[in-house]
Amino acid sequence: MKEFRAPLASVLLTDLYQLTMVTAYHQLGMERTAVFEFFVRALPRERGFLLCGGLEQVLDYLENLRFAPADLEWLEGTGRFTPHSIEFLKGLRFTGDVDAMPEGSVFFADEPVLRVTAALPEAQLAESRIVNLLSFQSMIATKAARCRLAAAARRLVDFGLRRAHGAEAGLLAARACYMAGFDATATVEAGRLFGIPIAGTMAHSFIQAHDDERAAFEDFARVHPRGLTLLIDTYDTIRAAHDVVALCGKGVRVDGVRLDSGDLAVLSREVRSVLDAGGCGHVRIVASGSLDESAIAALLAAGAPIDTFGVGTRLDVSADAPYLDCVYKLEEYAGRPRRKRSLGKSTWPGRKQVFREFDPDGHICRDTIALHDEALPGQPLLQPVMRGGRCLPRPSLAQSRAHARRSIDSLPEECRRIAAPEALIPRVSQRLSALVEQVDREFT
Amino acid sequence: MKEFRAPLASVLLTDLYQLTMVTAYHQLGMERTAVFEFFVRALPRERGFLLCGGLEQVLDYLENLRFAPADLEWLEGTGRFTPHSIEFLKGLRFTGDVDAMPEGSVFFADEPVLRVTAALPEAQLAESRIVNLLSFQSMIATKAARCRLAAAARRLVDFGLRRAHGAEAGLLAARACYMAGFDATATVEAGRLFGIPIAGTMAHSFIQAHDDERAAFEDFARVHPRGLTLLIDTYDTIRAAHDVVALCGKGVRVDGVRLDSGDLAVLSREVRSVLDAGGCGHVRIVASGSLDESAIAALLAAGAPIDTFGVGTRLDVSADAPYLDCVYKLEEYAGRPRRKRSLGKSTWPGRKQVFREFDPDGHICRDTIALHDEALPGQPLLQPVMRGGRCLPRPSLAQSRAHARRSIDSLPEECRRIAAPEALIPRVSQRLSALVEQVDREFT
Q: Which of A252, A320, A385, B15 is the most buried (most CB within 10 A)?
């Protein structure tokens, strides 16, 4: 039987209409320079900011974008493309420029996060995968950043692989979470691919496979003499906590206990008392099960003595906001700014830049969306990251993680709030506003 | 620069604790037969049924599960595993049995959908990826089936790649949608991988790259003389519909027009009138933009003359229910039934089967969850699909699609409803109920 190995670097990871348009552009001689920008039209209601993620994978994709012989053969077999078009696709590479906000930057509605400047067919072809990669990691990085804000200095571990939408989602979610401030992931392959610390405890099945919970604890301790975390909620959490104390009394090194069900605020306090009374003050409490930033905030507000949060499903699918309303739109072609006017979906024309101003204590006080060549006060957020189809030196994941921390620290309080956050509304420069009117007069 | 090619068949696509437990089982000599079952604990509120998907990929995964030399080397380098454990992992293969509901079967809460019977380490190791694959495709297949119920015989196309959670999600969503009754996908790679019909129109960027919308239509027609679908909402939808009529008058073959914004019910009626009055009764109307089963149902209830729905984001992320509350739990080990009793997460012990009874008109009237060796009325839903680690003959995607159609047709009306559906509640056999009490007496 043929194994399913999704070809994730395939150039056919695109929508059919991209290929239809790309070959049409070629036939029509429309291969002049186009500028596309990726941005989010509106933030989800529950978000006061967004955190960029996924640029690294976009750059990999663009640098390696080409049609393999098998791709061309299959496309030819569809009967949808002329031999002339197939020949054109055969030679197609991405040779353009990319400017982008570094991963780990915070951003807001309508702000271009990535700008592609390339021959129209090259820039068009990449749309589907660029949106796919940037929107997912930005969405997860944002959710993870909110978990970090809720958890303050407590340890956060990504447990979400099993409920993530497929394997790539699990891997890229682990990456986005780490970049946004998580400490570790349970996903082993993400540890290998991205160098993220891995962590894990034990599952209920280990307990259940034994005839008795105490025997399971002893067995696990026997094979992990250098320290272990025990799952204590399979049958009776408090009784199990007493068993952990007894185990420590026998000289076993227990580092932590995990609670995965019930009222975590109540149970963590009771378990803490049992452990402390039994001289196990060093045993840390790990909590998991339907957690997200709101649950973490509520637990800590209730004084729950939890040291580590394992956050899974709701993080890896961004359950309260499982997609971003994001697009990649043509803003300029052949030297002329363009815009879309569709009802509720209109866009700002032209090559743009975002200028960010900070108040004296380092908090963001103003973002201005402007034309790329305006000289406005503030820090320009889009930076060159690819020139002529080749990547410029990139930050490491650790550097992006440090940048994310600084970015999140620069957010105003109302953006950082877990409950009812308020996003910053970027200004639009006068020149950009004037350009809209000009473009609307020119295009019909 | 190193390219990101996620190794989707990697055995390291698992949670660290699986490897910790698997090697512990080996060290402890716990390698007797275990039975794990995958099931959904509770249906999302908005669902009256679920539709199985993803079994094909699970079987591929199990058949090819092995640690490559590079995997073992990396694991050894983590310092978490003894040479003895690494040697054990080196020889590990999945040699067990799998019984499952065929893809395209409808199922309900607590019903085992897949049962793995294998040596404990083999069955444990596979948990994370099994849950990942079955939960995602079942979730998407269910959402797509609801779109099919809402759309009746109208054409449905998956447009969701760009907002899917990564590439694998986009590909597997396309597969799940097609299995559940969609007609086509826009995702080219899904067309190649799974043989799904591909479809697509044109994007706003094609219009915007032209100085004038009419010129864009004429250009697109020039390169697609055998028929085309034109996107008509970039500037003024009704004016564009008149332009389409004029284009048809010049002998251009226009198959369809696409609306992607605004009030689709109102616009589709107006556009239909313009087209019909202009002698373009053959031009079909394609609608897209924030659609899902509820929007489709509302549009059709409002009499919108839409022929094809392009469904994207809300389908490919199952936006109103972006995860299933599903698990893969140990139900038996070494010949003894087991169960988990954690508060709110308790399970039914033992190897189970689901017996489905139909009323005379072919609708499901009763599901009973029972022990696998009970002789109850009805059709047993779990069938052998793998024996000794080798797959038994499998249905094609077309066969699973036909099965899905029959399964959906067999649903009672209250399960099929788009608004406020009610799921069927399976019964539990007397023997299974009695077993719970027995297990609770035995395990503590």
A: B15
Cα angle value A83/A89/A91 (rounded, 5°) = 110
- Per-residue confidence (pLDDT) for residue B7, from 0 to 100: 60
Residues in A 161-190 with any Cβ partner in B closer than 8 A = 161-173, 186-189
pTM, 2 dp: 0.97
Question: Which domains occur in chain B, in start order?
Answer: 16-140+323-442 (3.20.140.10), 153-316 (3.20.20.70)
* 17-36 of A, contacting B, C-beta below 8 A: 17-21, 23-25, 27-28, 30, 34, 36
Say if the Cβ atoms of A166 and B161 lie within 8 Å: no
Q: How far is CA B291 from CA B18, B284, B323, in A?
A: 39, 18, 19
Kindly report, residue by residue over A85-106, the tens digit of the pLDDT.
999 999 999 999 999 999 999 9
For residue A136, give the nearest of A190, A191, A174 by alpha carbon: A174
Quote the CA–CA distance of B296 and B151 in Å, as a whole number: 6
At B130-166, the pLDDT tens digits run 999 999 999 999 999 999 999 999 999 999 999 999 9
- Residue range A232-275, pLDDT digits in tens: 999 899 999 999 999 999 999 999 999 999 999 999 999 999 99
Nearest of B177, B37, B194, B168 to residue B101 by alpha carbon:
B37
Residue type at B318?
S
For residue A198, what is the nearest residue in chain B, using CA coordinates?
B16
Task: Give the ipTM.
Answer: 0.96
